Amino acid sequence: MGIYASSKHALEGLSESLDHEIREFNVRVVLLEPTFTNTKLDVNAAQTAAPLGAYATQADATIKAVQAQIRTAPSALAVAEKILATINGPYRMRQPAGGQATLLSRLRRFMPASAVDSSLRKTFGFGKRSAS
């Protein structure tokens, strides 16, 4: 999840910078922010061939959490509809796409960071240790 999340943060930073750089040309950048989308990405994702040792339990919990989120996520069509609405609607740089994305955006805006952090850790099964 770390590599995935960091790539999303990198795109966010790039998009913010690019928006400032090209605004004088009457072009704006939009960050469409879906959470999970119901696709076959999880089925087609590569799995590590190397043993994960102490991290195996956490990796398994994370994979299961992601798969559960994908099963109940909006369809790709719903995200495509949000793209069209964003193109045709009023400008806002950040555009959450779907209920979970909107909820997360609002939580980050109005809730203490520790509460949001705790909720995300719970969702992905972080911090759970099996008895050894």
Describe the protein.
The structure is a single chain. The radius of gyration is 17 Å and the shape is globular. It is built from 6 helices and 2 strands, in the order αβαααβαα. The chain has a domain at 30-45 and 52-123. 58% of the residues lie in helices and 6% in strands. The model has no long low-confidence stretch (mean pLDDT 81). The chain has helices at residues 2-22, 41-44, 56-71, 76-88, 99-110, 113-123; strands at 31-34, 94-97. With 132 residues, the chain is mostly helical. The protein has a two-stranded parallel ribbon.
Distance between the termini: 24 Å
Q: How many strands, what sense, and barrel or not for the largest sheet?
A: 2 strands, parallel
Assembly form of the protein = single chain
Q: What spatial form do the alpha-carbon principal axes imply?
A: globular
Strand order of the largest sheet: 1-2
Radius of gyration: 17 Å
Which regions have little confidence, pLDDT < 50, spanning 5+ residues? none
Structural class: mainly alpha
Q: Into which percentage range does the β-strand content fall? A: 5-15%
- Residue share in helices? 55-70%
| Count of helical stretches | 6
Order of helices and strands: HEHHHEHH
Mean pLDDT: 81
Strand count:
2
